[in-house]
Design brief:
By secondary structure, this protein is of the alpha+beta class. It contains ten helices and 40 strands. It is globular, with a radius of gyration of 27 Å. The chain binds beta-D-galactopyranose.
Length: about 700
């Protein structure tokens, strides 16, 4: 009898605990798995870091996204209810401590239109389309609830849906019109799930997992000495000069240079050249020898002293994709240390701080200061230079940067002089709040602030690589060189999704004409390694195959290569992506051509780039079908029962590439000859992956 009572009690207790209703807030889940149009979803904020506000109502708890956005949650049948208040989100930034930004001088007009930018974007372009969107709650491929089309300013709508028995729940926001940051901000306010049992609902990745096992293709680093890329470096006469000769091999190495121009000295242990560039214009061919106990290598690097910098696309590190505004001096130093140790020998040269270094106020005489995160910026710059690298900084021509820090408006000369004192070698100049200043959207107005900073930089004693960031407005590639720009962003911000890589790199089809040494299109920075736009950085969401495709395409496009990852978390796979000298050689090729799209099918593309030695670099990409157009929310989700994609055979005719005769194909990632081909090259390509080859005439 006793036993029966005991069993009965255990049963009762068990069923009681199983029946206890629990609640989990969506904001407490792993938000890095939300797939959104721009940026990264943040707890209780919009992806832009602003509070969640729907039609004037602020939500302390919730998740802001940029539409289109999707989030998949595993319930395992234990869910009871999903509830939230949803709606398009307003862009309300927290007030800055010293009050609102200065009023724009002399005009109060807003930007109106520019076809180069996504509609609805406020930073200066696009005939302004009121963003509208629709929210969906899906359960196991069924629509459980939908909001109907909602537009900016609409009252939040309440969702309360039963989710008994559902295995997978998806929260989807479909963009009806107006996308991107500001344009398509949407929020799931007070969103939560009630459930029973011990297994809490969990966010899961909605990705089809294929190509997910990192395969390192780059051969391991040679012990014998090697001289890598770039093979040319630019300087203007008589300016401070710093350049690391890119050499690898087992240490200790000894580097020597014949005919070193006066004013320059060489540290033969590191290959760091520093001093003052020659005062006479001309090409100085540096005959280099690098030796170690295993052998020696000889080669030439041309120092071209003239009017142009960035004779090959800049390669380096930028802080933005590695934590956004949270950057601090230690992170920058750590990046300099890792790059000096592992990457400098492969041509990586710049250490750039993006937004987030500025103090809240200028001094009484208008001087720009750093914030507390950068206690000794000059010391940091000296440190970067001592490692043979160059130092970059960020500002905006407007009163405020995109992260609401102080911009350089009306302080251009003063700021350029400050940066010169700090030893700055590179400036990213980001449009942001200049939209409040521009009178209209004419080309003249688009160029104006960039001319002003060009002149301010010219008054300093430094060679400053000038990076324009205005997202492609007014077809910047047609006039970027005129304002002395060395590179210019051509797209909105990248994030670590395949959709974003498709929307940035793969859209660079019609802007190859004005590209060449000194002038580069910039489809934004790299998203490999540990990335993120808040303190919460995570391994990139790109699969290994997507990462190979990303680096290959940026190399073909001769895009600047700016690593945006936490360098002290650099893993072996990411390192292998960044140290393949044959792939880097395509990017740094001295001819400076941008690859062109040669062939395109629904789910594949072939890009090719002419190289200085007369060969061609060709990338076969299995892009998959873009889901951008998807309006059916059920189809936007990978529910997990889809077949993993297999590889696809992609073939390119030599005629389409402008080639005749037999061609030798070398696989650049594995650095192996594949064979001799006649009439066409073809290869199996992994889903969202690439095969990158160099085709050269077979003898
Ligand atoms: C954006 C820019 C990003 C980053 C950010 C800083 O406009 O595109 O690359 O610089 O501003 O706030």
């Amino acid at each position: 009898m006793k036993n029966v009572i005991l069993i009965w009690c255990v049963f009762l207790l068990g069923s009681f605990s199983a029946e206890v209703e629990k609640t989990i807030w969506i904001s407490d889940m792993d938000l890095s798995l939300i797939d959104l149009e721009m940026g990264q979803a943040q707890k209780n904020k919009t992806p832009m870091g602003s509070p969640i506000v729907i039609s004037g109502q602020t939500y302390e708890n919730g998740v802001g996204v940029s539409a289109p956005a999707k989030f998949l949650i595993e319930l395992n049948g234990t869910g009871k209810q999903f509830s939230a208040e949803v709606g398009p989100c307003e862009m309300k930034m927290p007030a800055r401590p010293e009050g609102p930004a200065p009023a724009p001088a002399g005009n109060d007009k807003k930007a109106t239109g520019n076809a180069a930018r996504p509609a609805g974007d406020p930073m200066g372009g696009g005939a302004r389309v009121m963003p509208s969107m629709e929210f969906f709650v899906l359960g196991d491929k069924q629509v459980l609830w939908s909001s109907g089309v909602m537009k900016s300013g609409d009252q939040p709508k309440k969702v309360d849906v039963k989710i008994d028995g559902i295995k997978k729940l998806a929260l989807v926001v479909v963009s009806v019109s107006g996308r991107g940051p500001f344009g398509g901000l949407a929020a799931w306010g007070n969103s939560k799930i009630t459930y029973f049992g011990d297994i809490a609902p969990k966010a899961i990745s909605g990705k089809i997992v294929s190509g997910s096992i990192p395969r390192i293709l780059t051969p391991s680093e040679c012990s014998v000495p090697k001289i890598n890329y770039p093979k040319v470096v630019g300087a203007t006469p008589g300016k401070p000069f710093i350049f690391s000769i890119p050499v690898t091999g087992e240490k200790p190495l000894k580097v020597t240079v014949e005919n070193l121009p006066d004013g320059l000295s060489l540290d033969s242990n590191t290959g760091i050249l520093s001093g003052t560039s020659p005062s006479k214009k001309g090409t100085y061919s540096l005959n280099i020898t690098v030796k170690n106990s295993l052998g020696e290598a000889k080669g030439t690097i041309d120092l071209k002293v003239g009017d142009l910098l960035a004779l090959t696309p800049p390669m380096g590190w930028n802080s933005w994709n590695a934590g956004g505004m949270t950057v601090d001096q230690n992170k920058v130093k750590a990046a300099a240390d890792v790059i000096a140790e592992k990457l400098r020998g492969h041509g990586w040269a710049f250490i750039n701080i993006d937004d987030g270094w500025q103090a809240d106020k200028r001094t009484d005489n208008g001087e720009l200061l750093t914030n507390a995160k950068f206690s000794d910026i000059k010391g940091m710059s000296d440190y970067i230079h001592s490692k043979g690298m160059r130092f970059g900084i960020y500002s905006s021509p407007g009163p405020q940067t995109c992260g609401r820090a102080i911009g350089s408006y009306q302080h251009e000369e003063q700021d350029a002089a400050t940066w010169a004192r700090w030893g700055v070698d590179y400036l990213k100049y980001d449009w942001c709040s200049y939209r409040q200043i521009q009178k209209d959207n004419s080309l003249e107005e688009l160029k104006k602030p960039y001319f002003i900073m060009r002149d301010a930089l010219a008054k300093t004693n430094r060679d400053v690589v000038y990076s324009l960031c205005q997202y492609g407005m007014g077809d910047v590639w047609k006039w970027g060189a005129e304002v002395n720009g060395n590179l210019w962003r051509t797209t909105m911000d990248i994030n670590d999704s395949w959709k974003s890589v498709l929307g940035t790199g793969f859209t660079q089809t019609d802007n190859y004409q004005n590209i060449g040494p000194g002038h580069w299109n910039d489809p934004d920075m790299l998203v490999v390694g540990t990335v993120g736009w808040s303190a919460n950085t995570k391994p990139t969401k790109l699969t290994p195959d997507e990462q190979y495709a990303h680096i290959s395409l940026w190399s073909l496009l001769a895009s600047p290569l700016l690593i945006g990852c936490e360098m002290d978390k650099l893993d072996g796979f990411t390192l292998s992506l960044l140290t393949n000298d044959e792939v880097i050689g395509v990017n740094q090729d001295v001819l400076g051509r941008q690859a062109r799209l040669i062939q395109k099918g629904d789910d594949y593309q072939v890009w090719a780039k002419d190289l200085a030695d007369g060969s061609k670099a060709v990338g076969l990409f299995y892009t998959g079908v873009a889901e951008a157009a998807a309006k059916d929310p059920v189809k936007m989700i990978n529910w997990g029962d889809e077949k993993p994609e297999t590889a696809k055979l992609i073939s390119i005719d030599f005629k389409a590439l402008g080639l005749s005769g037999k061609q030798k194909a070398r696989d650049l990632w594995s650095q192996q000859i594949l064979g001799t081909y006649d009439g066409r090259f073809e290869s199996e390509v992994n889903y969202h992956g690439v095969v990158l080859v160099k085709l050269s005439a077979a003898e």
